[in-house]
Amino acid sequence: MLFKSIVCSAFVLTALAKPELQFQKITNQLENSWHDFQGVLRKGANEIEHAAAETYLTAFHPAFPEYAIRYKQPSLCDPSVNQISGYLDVDDNKHFFFWFFESRNKPKEDPLTLWLNGGPGCSSLTGLFMELGPCTVNKAGDNTILNPQSWNSNSSLLFLDQPLNVGYSYGDGGATNTIDAAKHVYAFLQLFFNEFSQYADLDFHVSGESYAGHYIPRIGTEINKNNKGKFQNLRMSQFSDTLKPINLKSLLIGNGLTDPLTQYKYYAKMACENPYKPVLDKATCRNMEAQFPACARLIENCYKSQNVFACLPAAMKCNKDQVQPYQQTGTNPYDVRDPCKSGGMCYEILDSVQTYLNRDDVKKAIGARVEKYESCNMQINFRFNLAGDWMRPYVREVPPLLEDGIRILIYAGDADFVCNYMGNKAWTLELPWSRKDEFRGLKDIDWVNDDGQKIGEVRSTKDGLFSFLRVNGAGHMVPYDQPEAALQMLNQWLSNALH
């Protein structure tokens, strides 16, 4: 167990060294420092309680007195690389699980990529063990298999279970909307980079899929604003000198839900005119198209007010009219080519992942503390829906990020229905930013593998600032269906060679 420091001492001494400060200001600072000290003692007591069962290292940050991280260094999945796993603890009753893997190539130089699954309510360990992590789980769920196409081939990887009570995360309360969830992610990154400073200056990328099309733009905004000193609370302003700029280079969103107003328009077309086979008859698709204007008006109202009274009705009606007809066919909503199988989210492998992550030896090795791991928590999904988060326009976070030079890749497997490539491509073309006309005027070009075979289509600005990539033969989870193409995509994107 390692305590980094008593964080209040340096702050108090700094205040007293400036005689021009007024008495009231010093008093306020002392009160803040006493609050910090109490927080450290509280976390220390909690930490000792945990340490009775297992040994952890623990770290704090002066700008976030209610946060701490405790961690271990396991060797599961890919023993050849350094790993860190543990929890971000918040106010003693919120605990977010994370798992970090160093790059297999040059960990001191390669970038660091954060991965987030969506839902809302689904564990990012789905991405780890089913899609792009250093290993996959075997069918029996009692062992792992090394993944040669892992995204840590040329990038360190960081998986985070958020929001609260997703995957191995646990606690009371928690966020019910994307904005609050992003604040926890930013605090976690500050603590992580403060404790593991060897990674703090690396290029940093945020990636994910599905409802992460909400999460990622907002996380990008949170990082970008704080990097520019536009802090959201007084505490962060007071301790701004302790906040390290996060070297955010890009965002990658796969089959995401980012702009519902545009994307919902394409459900009928994807159901009847996708590249593989019609799922619905033409009459049903025509009926979906006829229902869409009413859906669009509700989403527009949500975009205008962003309050739950406008946004919840939009989600209820639009999902009923545009998604439910497809679901009633029994076809996999994440892949128009297949029926929905008995496993979690229509994939049998997710049952194997759950079996593995519920093993006592696995939980002990990585420090996981939940009684039962589940790939998705539908209560979280329900709470975000009830809060009206589903239909909110997080697409509006994208233009300011592009204008500030944050590169953004929108990619989509062309067999996914629920966040299909048609709708995703459409919103990239409609995005209101300074280079909209330029992007719309570009041509889609063939995206080929090393053998010269076409594996998709890409449209990208010449400088690689904004790109849309269609991946052939992949459903909702591109790295699962096309692992080699997904790794090629990542490597080309990180080296700004996708355009």
UniProtKB/TrEMBL annotation:
Q: Signal peptide location in the record?
A: 1-17
Entry superkingdom: Eukaryota
Entry's EC annotation: 3.4.16.-
Keywords, A to Z? Carboxypeptidase, Glycoprotein, Hydrolase, Protease, Signal
Major enzyme class = hydrolase
Named from the GO MF annotations, one term is:
serine-type carboxypeptidase activity
Q: Which InterPro entries match?
A: AB_hydrolase_fold, Peptidase_S10, Ser_caboxypep_his_AS, Ser_caboxypep_ser_AS
What name has this protein been given in UniProt?
Answer: Carboxypeptidase
Q: Which family does it belong to?
A: Belongs to the peptidase S10 family.
A single Gene Ontology CC term: fungal-type vacuole
GO BP of this protein: proteolysis
